[in-house]
Amino acid sequence: MMEKITFCIPSKNNLRYLKTCLPSIRINASRDDHDIIIFVDADNDGTIEWLEQNQILYGYRYYINPKLNEELYGIGKAYDHCVFWAETDICMIFHADMMLGQDADLNAWKHLNRGKVVCATRIEPPLHPNAGEKILEDYGVWPEEFDEDGFDLAVGKYQMAYEGKTTTGMFAPWMIYKEDLLAIGGHDPILKSAREDSDIFNRFKLYGYELIQSWDSLVYHLTGRGGQFQTGDTQVKDEEWQKLMSNSTKEFIRKWGSNVKHTPMLDPIISPKYDIGIVMKGGYQLLEALEPWCSTIYLKEPDDLPLYAFRDMISLYLDKEQPNTSTDLLKKIIDMTFWSGIPSNNILVNIDQSTFTQEDYNIIQNLSEIIDQSGEIGKFNVGNMDIEIKEMNDYKDKLIKL
After folding, report:
1. How many CA atoms lie within 13 A of 301 on its CB side?
2. Extents of the domains making up the chain
3. Residue 8 near residue 79, CB atoms below 8 Å
4. Which residue intervals of 142-209 are DSSP H helices?
5. Beta-carbon contacts of residue 195 (< 8 Å; ≥ 6 apart)
6. Could you give the 3-state DSSP secondary structure of residue 181?
C-alpha cells in the first residue's frame, strides 16, 4: 500500500475548478485518506464560502491569504505554504484545473524515492502543440463540460498501454518528498504567478534530483483554465495573467541570464550564468530591452538626447519597472555621465543604438551559450557589438538554494 501523501492546491478565484478537481481526487486516488491542503490566494467568486460548506464532504484543510484580494502570495509561495503545513512526508503539487485519473497517485509513487521528483502525464484537449510529452484528447475544455466517463475509459486504456513506462522531464502535477523540496528552499517568491515551475525544475536538476515522468499516472488538465484562460475565450489570455507572465519572465531572465529552455519532453536545459555588464549608448526602448539580460547596465548619454531628457528617461524606467522586480535597479543601472568608476563585470558588452540590430538582440538573448561554446579571454566583435571577456566564471550553481 502506498504512503499517505498531501495534495497541495493553490486557488486564485478557482471555485469552478475546485468543484471538479476535489471530487476527482476523492474518487480516483488509491487511498481515500490522503490529505488535501488548499491555499486561497484570491477570492472574488465565493471560494471560501464553498470551502466552509464542503469541508466535511471532501476532507481538506484550507488556508487564506492574510491580505486576501489586496496582494497575491503567488502560486509558488502558495504551494510552499501548503507544503509547510503538510503532515505527510510526501507532497503532490497539483493544479486546481486538473482532474486526477484512477490510481494516478499510486502509479507516480511507485517511482518515487529520495532525490527523485515524479510527475504524472497530462491528457489535454487539443488546444496547444504536443511535442510528445502529453496526450491530446478532448474530454472538455471547461470543468462544467468535463466528460468524466470518457476520461476514465482513456485512463484505463493508457494505463494498459504504458504500464511502468517512464521518461525524463517535468511538469505539474509532481510528487516529491517534503524534505527534498525544503532542501533547496522551495519555490522562488520573486516569480509571482508564472515561471515558478521552470525555475524550480532548473534547481532540481542542478541539485542532482532525477526528474521522472510516469506514463501510467494520468491527469486531465484543462490547460491554463485556472490562470491564463481563467474567465474567458480560450484564444484570449487573461489580461492580469499576461502582465504577471511578462513580469515573471523578465525576473526569470534576470536570475538565470536566459529564457526558459527544455527538451521536447520538458527536461530542463540550463545555460551558463555569467556576470555580464552591458555598456549602452541609447534610449528608453533599448534600455527596456537590454536591462533584464545583464548583471549591470551602464548608460551613456546618446548624441541626440539632451542630458535632462537622458536623466528623465532613467527615472521613468525606474518608476515603471522597479515595482515589478526584486532587483534593486538603482544599483543595477549606472548613469555614466558623472560616474568615475570602472565596469568590473567578468564580461562587458558595448552597444550603440545607432548600429544595434534585431540580429544583435538575438545574440544578446543567446550570449551565454555563445560564450560557453566559443568564448575565450580577450576582446572580439560579435555582430555590431564589442565584447571583452575577462573571466568565464559560471555562477548557475549559486542559484540552486534560496
Report:
1. 14
2. 5-256, 276-395
3. yes
4. 148-161, 178-183, 196-207
5. 245, 248, 249, 251, 252, 260
6. helix
Q: How far apart are CA 42 and CA 29, in angstroms?
A: 27
Query: What pLDDT, on a 0 to 100 scale, did the predictor assign at position 234?
Result: 52
DSSP 184: T
User: Quick one: cell of 267?
Assistant: 527536461
- The grid cell for 209 is 534530483
Residue 182 has pLDDT above 80, yes or no: yes
Q: How far apart are CA 179 and CA 175, in angstroms?
A: 12
Alpha-carbon distances of 356 from 250, 289, 300, 364, 400, rounded to whole Å: 21, 12, 15, 11, 34
Summarize pLDDT for 64-121 with one digit per residue, the tens: 999 999 999 999 999 999 999 999 999 999 999 999 999 999 999 999 999 999 999 9
Q: 228-252 as b/e, with b when 16 or more CB fall inside 10 Å?
A: bbbeeebeebbebbeebbebbbbbb
Three-class SS state of 339: coil
Burial of 358 (0-12, 13-18, 19+ CB in 10 A): exposed
Instruction: Quote the pLDDT of residue 130.
Output: 96
Give the count of beta carbons closer than 10 Å to the beta carbon of residue 323: 8
The helix (run of H) or strand (run of E) holding residue 349 is strand 347-352
Residue 300 predicted with pLDDT over 60: yes
Task: Say whether pTM exceeds 0.85.
Answer: yes
SS3 state at 123: strand
Q: How far apart are CA 200 and CA 401, in angstroms?
A: 10
Which architecture does CATH list for 5-256?
A: Alpha-Beta Complex (3.90)
Q: Are 124 and 221 in contact (CB under 8 A)?
A: yes
The tally of CA atoms less than 13 A away on the side-chain side of residue 224 is 17
Q: What is the pLDDT of residues 190-242, one digit of tens each?
A: 998 899 999 999 999 999 999 999 999 999 999 976 555 555 555 555 688 78
